[in-house]
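Suppose you are handed only two things: the residues of a chain and a line of SMILES describing adenosine-5'-triphosphate. What would the bound structure be? This form records exactly that question and the answer produced for it, so the two can be stored side by side and reused later without any lookup.

QUESTION INPUTS
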Amino acid sequence: MLDSNDCILSLDSLFFEKPIVHKKPLHQEPSPWQLEAPPSLAHIPATQDMQEEAESLSTLYVRFRSVFNEFPFFNYVQSKALDDVLYTSKNFVACAPTGSGKTVLFELAIIRLLMETPEPWKDVKAVYAPIKALCSQCFESWKKKFGPLGLNCKELTGDTEIDDFFEIQDSHIILTTPEKWDSMTRKWKDNCLLQLVRLFLIDEVHVVKDTTRGATLEVVVSRMKAVHTYRTSQNPEAGLSMRFVAASATIPNISDIADWLSNEGVQATYLDMDESHRPVKLRKVVLGFPCSPNQTEFKFDLSLNYKMANIIQTYSDQKPALVFCSTRKGAQQSAAVLAKDARFIMSIDHKQLMKNANSILDTKLRLMMLGVGYHHAGVALSDRKLIEEAFTLGDLPVLTTRTLAMGVNLPAHLVVIKSTMQYVSGSCEEYSEADLLQMIGRAGRPQFDTSATAVIMTKIQTRDKYMQLMNGAEIIESSLHSHLVEHLNAEIVLQTISDVNMALDWIRSTFLYIRALKNPTHYLCLKNLNSLSSIGLIDMDEDINIKPTAGRLMARYCVAFDTMKQFSEVAGTENLSDLIELVSKSREFSDIQLRMNEKRPLNTLNRDKNRVTIFPIEGKIKTSEMKVNLIQAQLGSISIQEFGLTQDTAKIFRNGMRISRLSEFLTQRSKTGFSAVLNSLILAKCFRAKLWENSPYVSKQLDKITAMVNSGLTTFSKIEQTNGRELELILNRHPPFGNQIRESVIHLPKYEVTLEQLPGYSGATAEIMVRVNLKNQAQLLSKRTARDHHYVSLIIGDSDNTVVFLQKLDFMLLKCGSWSKKIDVAKASKGEEISVNLISSEYGLDIQQKFTVHY
Ligand SMILES: Nc1ncnc2c1ncn2[C@@H]1O[C@H](COP(=O)(O)OP(=O)(O)OP(=O)(O)O)[C@@H](O)[C@H]1O
Ligand SMILES: [Mg+2]
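ANSWER OUTPUT
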């Protein structure tokens, strides 16, 4: 590994020795974009059915010309698609090589929508749904292009929901991912905003075959079709349309995609352009390297690092090279080896590179001075931006990168794919064809290059396979069948489907249906309905009418069928540790990887003497499941230093919150067993508060006082007992800050629970009066720290692990100040003591006590 001292010491001798990459070419060769001399924008003839409107169109042109300010001509592919995209409203699919300007087709479709819609374009809504990285890229460009026309663009890729609806209210173009749009449209029947969408743009439509993401895209398309059918039935006169426009660089069976995107009666049109229309010609090279049978993937990957310098020297033509690596570590190692092995410094402007390198926060990345940078999701955002910029400007000759998605923005003259294997959920598998094409697609910078090279480095044994792959592409199949059960359930809950006929209609609207007719053996489906009913998620009666039951929860919390199945098997005796283990095993975490460099910090956490990990795992940390389980440590309020781990922690919390809520509802619903119900309540609370239930850091939950934890003011009572001025002194703040903090603590609800046995003994049951009191109700009338949705759950269990009583006490208790109820307690076989628990939805305000019943 290179350290920063190495960099500084060796700079002078390294520079200028043998520069193999230099800055952008000074003169530009004629671009093949213009060779075909396609029509310029101003001269595009109107098609026949638009003849009468030709005049008004020409005025419209002036208006929309600004969208295409970047270039003087439409290229060949765009010119070919123009008639279909701009002059008809038919659904449309294009397959054209990477870098052939397909984004313009989406822009033209938006313009068509504007042309069709009378101004003001208040209710115009178009949705663009590609992968996340493309969203941001397009967002930046479309803001500039469509903003001046008065259109608002909105990027929606986060995890929130409530505000999103507010945000899209005034947006005309919504840039989102299929996943996000899936969650947004789950309540489409209640939301008229979603029913305004008239144009749905699908970039990289080959994603439909992706095993995890493809199914989501399919159901989203089907749902948009259902939205359209619904609004047409509500308002048949309005003649509303819903247009789908899709594009990809790799669809051998494009007619199937066109069939899928066709509307009833109107066939979608398509454009199929082969590689010969690639504006930057691409040379594809596949290199095989020896790998002995007992060599691990890891070692093989490592060995490739040492071949890299040579490959770059041979194929880069002294222009920017991008190296795709399968792991973060791999990207870092390659960069370090390259920086030692070769001299990648351009002669003219290394000053700029030095300047960039000096602004980099991560010292390891300072090896940028040697002309090599690396880039992955674990690199801090500001560093990543700097590196991307330096690379795009041609200042950084070589960049190694981990993520494909992150490479989207980064065209290079040479693309090298270092090894065709990647790590997915802890195991090694080959890149998908779509992934490879995406990576290869980064080769060629249309502004500077007329040719480009992509090199695939693989094992000798797999060389032929990749040679073949480069020369043809695999048919796109649906991947909906493998997730059909979850999606079918969601649509039933959404009421898109309420009987078997509707289920069949829905299936007919999918890509799965199109492909299943052509390739039936590839797919197998009523089986899924049976799976759902087998664990009680839906009810099917004799006439096979379908009704959702627990399936509602599955859809509401968006969890996988396997996770539901796992929780349906809860025995009832589970304690907190068992439940955490169960949550850690959920399918939702299957993409969390255990990285080599994380094992050590995780093992340290697991053995931590301060007991941040309340339930240590036996043995060494070996699986990603164990890693997820160690989320416990974070609940113990320690700060995790490792950046990658922190990122995963955030993700684990997001999913964990959902799953723990689900387990809370599931166990409550079935009253499985006192222990499981109580602990799932506690666990859900811990996830919500991001703290252990009995954590000494409960005060962290109050927004203003995070800093106090460091000063030892960890509990509410300590804060309450401290004088306001003293608090200010400790925190170095001005009055009335201290008083404000004390106020918020004083105004937290404080409960008490009392039980009283009522006279009259029967031997088998006893009558108990339970009361919950809000001790400080008077204080809370004027002001309350707890929000309106704050609630407490009262749960009583007996020594046979039976739930005797369970009730959620919400807002009404906060308002009325007290609650009481007479309950019957049947005699348990194992003892007469009952456990009484009041668990609050957040804050450390719980009460847990015992009560002995007399019979
Ligand atoms: N008519 C044109 N003249 C000149 N440059 C163009 C033209 N159309 C697009 N470009 C440029 O070509 C580059 C590639 O365009 P774009 O990203 O739309 O390609 P793509 O077909 O979507 O590729 P991919 O399959 O990799 O997503 C962009 O930099 C774009 O500005
Ligand atoms: Mg594109």
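WHAT STANDS OUT: Residues 33, 70-71, 73-75, 78, 96, 98-104, 249, 441, 446 surround adenosine-5'-triphosphate (ligand 1) (CB under 6 Å). The radius of gyration is 31 Å.
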